[in-house]
Amino acid sequence: MQTDNKKVLITGASRGIGKNIALNFKEEGYLVVGTATSRLGVKEISKNGHIGIELNLDNNESIDAFLKIIDNDHQDINILINNAGITKDNILLRMREEEWLKVINIHLNGAFRITKKILKNMIKAKWGRVINISSTAASIGNKGQANYSAAKSGIEAFSRTVANEVGSRGITINSVAPGYIETDMTKNIDRKAKEEILERIPLSRFGKAEEVSDLILFLSSEEASYITGQTIHVNGGLFM
User: Fold this and answer.
1) pTM of the predicted model, to two decimals?
2) What is the DSSP string of 15-78?
3) Which of 76, 148, 164, 202 is most buried, taking the most CB atoms under 10 A from its CB?
4) What domains are defined for the chain?
């Protein structure tokens, strides 16, 4: 796998799947720029040998400041991983408008603004990779996640559409949709609920972050140059 000093930007790189993606790219020789919403998160990213930048996708001033840094220091980003996200779960009848808007804003509007900026430089270079992190929730519709499922469905449609627009410029855009992955978030699922989830997964286990990041590494490579506009699931058979 040829890295040729390629530079990758990963949003939400201080923990969970994003942290594992960043470490995986670094091990393969890529230059890694990662974002976090707090100074502590930025410090964690830098501690792992990456370039850390603070970014809050729910704050326009933060996004504007981040995009200026990209213009000044990182116009050579070849690969973008839109990974940052949150959950604000509630059944629809109890969901506050704030919970709906915050999730849509961070997942969908944030990805729009960051991707638009990075794509301009990829088009000039006539090469690029964009991988948007979706979720199995976009396909199966988890109860209490109308906002999250809608945002992730939007990300998948966004990916397919932009893939059509920039494919002739040597740029591929795909979505990766993890199911239940072993992270800090899934560790908080109580035993009974976890047993019920495992009964629905044919492989009878949660996935590992490495199984997601290895796929993303492949999609970022030259070997994946004929794959674009796809949503690839990593879920142990939970959704087929």
Assistant:
1) 0.95
2) SHHHHHHHHHHHHTT-EEEEEESSHHHHHHHHHTTSEEEE--TT-HHHHHHHHHHHHHH-TTEE
3) 148
4) 7-233 (3.40.50.720)
